[in-house]
Amino acid sequence: MNLHQAERDALLRPLQMVSGIVERRHTLPILSNVLLTRTASTLSMLATDIDIQITHHSDVGSVDAQANVSTTVSARKLVDILRALPNNNEVSLSLKDNRLTIQQGKARFSLQTLSADEFPTVVAAEQTPAKLTLRQKDLKQLLHLVHFAMAQQDIRYYLNGLLLVVDARSIRAVATDGHRLATASLSLDDANIQGLSIELDGSAPSHQVIIPRKAVMELQKVLADDDQTLDLQVASQQVRFHLGRLELLAKLIEGKFPDFERVIPKAHDKVATIQREVLLGALQRAAILTTEKFKGVTLSLGNNTVRISAKNAEQEEAFEEIEANYSGNDIEISFNVQYLLDVLGNLKTNDVEIRLLDSNASALITTPGDDLSFRCVIMPMRI
Question: Where are the beta strands (DSSP E) in 121-179?
Fold first, then answer.
């Protein structure tokens, strides 16, 4: 049976979108496959790892009342074959005797399939107490500003994701790995945020959910950097994103996220305003002399200057002085340089503000005139 005929890229692009979550090695072999479903007017591609599910729906161009078939095939092999075909000419997919045939011109490939009945899918929740509509570029920027602070494989499983807080007026993203914390928000009260709408069912004044790290990283890949909108639905155990023809559904991480408001300093009175790219460049150069085991750099703030220094076990040393708008008392404080590089590299502003209290207290990094209420807290280190 003919499943679909389309130009190569029309098949390859959606397949790449959904297959990013497919694990190369899995205890269930069928999870290495993508589920292909042909209905009268659409071809759907679905991939899942049990916790995350991504589906793409494509119009087939012609309506076939007889078409209603599903199968699963290796996602990696199908992507590799389509990518390796020499041009963007039409490709046909057909199914016969439990084998999927991919044909373009005189090139033909036959792949083994597994039954669609054995393919596990995540069922969408019926109750969604919070629903939002917003521009894809706004959500992409929101995630971009905080994703780097998520933990990776931390025993505190609730840190291996991103906290989303939704109330009647705003949506806030928070991430922390215990050494640093980043938060940013979108608000209905911000004139620069267009197209944002929030609908709560009244069951609670706000909803807090923890989205898995993998889902956050996949979202950043598929979100467009433009004014296209998306629908976001928050349920008690899952979150669902509708991006036009694409749907991403993720199970939530259970657990209690740390009280991030308590972590954000309120009384740091020493404020240095520095050109972001100048500071980023100086830190990148200093980081050359740090090691994998020890990434410490020292910032010494004085009269309108910041001195950046780093040393290593071979007695090598880096030193650089840059200009800053700072008139407070002299202060010297050390950090893991990678934490500073992560936050500066993910910001787009011309300037950053570093707010300090003393050498032992955490630093608060903000941006002047910020529309997204960005805050990043970094704990100091002893050198």
Answer: 130-135, 161-167, 170-176
Give the span between the Cα atoms of 354 and 364, in whole angstroms: 6
Q: What is the pTM of this model?
A: 0.91
pLDDT tens digit string along 125-137?
A: 888 999 999 999 9
User: pLDDT of 317-335, one tens digit each?
Assistant: 999 999 999 988 999 999 9
DSSP string, 68-105: -EEEEEEHHHHHHHHHHSSSS-EEEEEEETTEEEEEET
**Three-class SS state of 310:** strand
Separation of alpha carbons 359 and 382, rounded Å: 9
Residue 21: name the closest of 208, 184, 247, 228 by CA. 247
**How many CA within 13 A on the CB side of residue 113?**
24
Q: What is the DSSP letter of 142?
A: H
189 vs 4 pLDDT, higher one: 189
For residue range 80-115, what is the model confidence (pLDDT) as tens digits?
Answer: 999 999 888 899 999 988 899 999 999 999 999 999
Maximum Cα interatomic distance, the chain, rounded to a whole number of Å:
78
- Match 């972590």 to its residue by tokens: 263
Contacts of 117 (CB under 8 A, 6+ apart): none
Is 222's pLDDT higher than 60?
Answer: yes
CA distance 68 to 88: 27
With contact defined as beta carbons under 8 Å apart, do 98 and 117 qualify? no
The amino acid sitting at 164 is L
Of the candidates 118, 127, 84, the one whose C-alpha atom is nearest the C-alpha of residue 98 is: 118
* Per-residue model confidence (pLDDT) at position 66: 59
